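Could you please consider the sequence and fold following this short note?
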Amino acid sequence: MSPQTGRVSPLGARCLLEPVTLLILLFLAVPLKHLAGWPSAVSVMGPVHGFAFLSLCWTVNHAVASRDIPARTGWRLVLAACVPFGGVHGWITLGAR
């Protein structure tokens, strides 16, 4: 969150969006598939989570290319996103800057 405006940056928003979509996938879509016999929940939520991950990677790439964040921080954000709920770590890292 930017201290001047009180708004979350696009990169920070995507760092939060990625683990939220994982939570929805794991705790809503997967139980619906296995307990309620509704496999289309995973068929919908899986690509949404994949898009959120790719969107995060694209935004990190853009932030590094425009020198908004150092390349080392960019690599850390992408690697953290590969770990479940690592996007939250990225959001905290960006908030500390």
